[in-house]
Structures are given as C-alpha cells and as structure tokens.
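Subject: for your reference before the review

Hello V.,

The reviewers asked for a structural picture of the protein, and I figured it would be easier to keep everything in one thread rather than splitting it across files. Below is the amino acid sequence we used in the manuscript, unchanged from the supplementary table.
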Amino acid sequence: MSKDENPLVEARKAKLAALVEAGVNPYPNDFKPADPMGRIRERHGETTDAETLAAIRVCCAGRILLLRNFGKLTFATLADDSGRLQIAVQRDEVGESLYREVFRKIEVGDFLGVEGVLFRTQTGELTIRVTRFQLLSKAVRPLPEKWHGLEDVEARYRQRYVDLIVNPEVRAVFRVRSRLIHLIRGFMEARGFLEVETPMMHPIPGGAVARPFVTHHNALNRNLFLRIAPELYLKRLIVGGFEKVFEINRNFRNEGLSIRHNPEFTMMEFYQAYADYRELMELTETLITGLVQEIHGTLVITHQGRTIDFTRPWPRLTPGEALATHAGADPERVGERSHLEALAETHGVKIHPGWDVGKLQLELFEALVESKLIGPTFVIDYPVSVSPLSRRSDRNPEIAERFELFIGGWEIANAFSELNDPADQAERFRAQVAAKDRGDLEAMHFDADYIQALEYGMPPTAGEGIGIDRLTMLLTDSAAIRDVILFPVLRS
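And here is what came back from the structure prediction:
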C-alpha cells in the first residue's frame, strides 16, 4: 500500500467503527440472494413497460463498483459473478435513519444485499428500486482508481484478487480456461480414456529433460523432487493393463521466467496402447480444431495481431526440412555437422563443441525456426539423441517417432511412439546420466524401477503432452503466460 492510501484506509476504518457502535454487524451471513444479476438482465433486459417492471421483485447481492450521491437519492452499480446492475436507493423508501446512519457510510468496494422492484431510469437503464438493503461486508481498503496501465502490470499479478474485481475481461479469460479444460476432459472421456492422478513428489525426477525442484521429507529423511512430468508413472499404468489414460495436472520445472514459461504449469498428458505418433497427430488435430471451433465459432482466429488458421490438414516437416524452409539450410546437407556449424556461425547461434548432429539441429531449429511457425505445424521425426524416451523408427534407427506441435511460434504439444524396449531404454538412461556427469543439469536420472516395469512388458504405445497454459493463451489472445495463470510465480 502506498503512503497516500493510508488516510483513505483510516477513514474507512473510522466508518466501520461507527457502524459497529451504531449496532450494525458489518460482516453478517444471513442474507440469501435469489436473483443473479445476469439472469435479471437476461429475463428483463428488453422489458420496457413500467407496470410490468414494477411488479417484478428481485433479491440480489454484490460488490459496489460505483456510487453517485444526489442527497436524498443514491445510484450505485452492483456486481456479482454473473454481471452488473444499477440500483437506486431513496431516503424516503428505506427510511431516513437507515439511509443516514448506515447507507451513507457504505462505499465503493463494500458488499451489499438489496431487495426491490425493477424500473427504468430516464436514460432507459434497467435499475432496481431498493426497498430493503443490508451491508454484507465492509471493505476497509479502497479499490484502485487506475489499474489498467502498464505501470500496474506487476501489481495486477501480485494482487490478482484486485485485478479480478476491477477487470471483468480478466475473469473472462479464466472462464475460457475452465471451459477449455472441461471440453478437453469430455473429449478424452468420450474416446475411452481413463482420467488418473499420479504422484507430484518423485523419488527420481524423470519424464522430461528439465531441472527439478528439490524438497526434503523429514520423516523419511530423504530428498524428493517435484515432478517435471507424469510420463513415467502414466506409462507404468499402461504396463499395468490400462490401455488409455490421461491426466490434467501441474508440472514443476526449476527454470527461468518468461512470457511463455512459469515454473509451475499445467499439462494434459495421455497415453494410448496400440497406437503410434501418427495416430496421435490425427487425434490432436481433431481435439484442437474442435476446441477452437467451440470457443470461437470459427477456425480462423487472431492472436496478438496475427491471424492463425486452424483449418486441417496441418503441415508436417522434419527438423531438417524446417531448417531448409525457414532458415536457409541446404536440404541436401542438413545432416552434415560442418554445414550446421556454418549455419550457426552465419546466424550468430552459439553452439557447444560436444553436441552431436541431432543436438545441433535442435538448437538451430529453436533459435531460427520455432518463432516462424505461426500456423499449426507438426515438426516430426526428431533425432534419437534428443529424444531419450521415444521409439526408434523402423525405417531409420537414428530417427525417433516423435512430433512437436507449434502454433503461434510456440511449442504446444510434444508426442512420440513410446520406447518399450527395456534394454534400449536403459542404454539411453545411461547416456543421460553421462550427460549429467558432464554438467548437464537438465539430463535425466537412471530410473531402475521404470526399467523393471518395462521388463514386465509394455504394449506398443503412443503418448503426448499438451500445454494447457499456452493453449489458453492462444484462445484468449493473451500475450504472456502470467495472463492465464491465476497466481503466477513472480520475482520478489
């Protein structure tokens, strides 16, 4: 709270004390609103006949967002979860004592319950003529007058509760997010997927190439890791006999903050036995085009001034083809180390001498191509060396049956035909451990229990993770991941 707000807070506390002294309970819990304001508008928003409106009694409650006093008459705007409505409180209608001793001590931000009848003002605005009111909650801190400016962005995230009060468009974003998750859940369940929950604390971090958060369990006197992905547990369920599983939940990665990254984020991850990555591409197209159509009513939307057309089918490119198309690489030489090193030097991309060709391709793709993939694009057939959990292609053992989906220049999904050969998986884990020993903090650990699970046999399987936050950003025209997470992680 800035210093200039102190007098306002003190003034409100003085009014609160005066109400208590007058015998008014400023925080009662016996008023039961019956009529959401949005429903009142929906039912009577077109009604103009004065006698008809005067016969309609309503009972509602909400926060006061605006007060306009005219002596014996006060107009106020109330807001509840469904909408806003104007009320008119007349001294002669509610009684002089209540009007003077109670209502005149009510301020913007307070919660008020009202009963009354409907009418239209001279300007035609639908309004409640209040016959009875009750203070339901006294706000001792005033709402900010200016909350939309760029200088207030950090404050809006830190005090999301205030952001939600004063910016209805922010609440609308999170309604879309909730609807999106509801639609995804229905889509998966309709196709026979079982929703499950897997551990948030792992003895061994795995399922993704990322740096984990570490915590300590006192009773067991051991370190545990907040999960970076649910993958290895979900695949254990496939081993156990569930053939279609999905989970919508949090992942935690000890990484930096950006417009696309928050250390705590939401994924939908799913696995299907007897499927491969090409089948998942078809399923993903069906899912996302359905979501876009359901939420926007069209497959062509705008995100941050850019038009994105979701019309199927979506292009499919290998990393090499993507480098040739978008970064000027020679399509005949994208597998040559010398050519990739020259391309990196030309574009000023820093590389590590220990990287193999697959890692070079991936780093160049991320630096030079990713941001250019605005329309939905599947990038397929990644090198095995950068895909430690993916199945090798039968056509080319150096290639993994993997795809990533990019939309708006962002990775939205990552999927592959799952590696179910325990010997191959163990060897790749060992390669990851060697990378970790060389200083790669994001490399995977060796998970012996997961290898044991694979030794019991896992059927041919495909799996995928879809970023709920980024998908919400696309479908709500949001610029930053913090705009679609209610309480994002912020710098101190």
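For the response letter, the relevant points are probably these. The domain at 3-143 is CATH 2.40.50.140 (OB fold (Dihydrolipoamide Acetyltransferase, E2P)). The mean pLDDT is 94.

Happy to draft the paragraph if you're swamped.

O.
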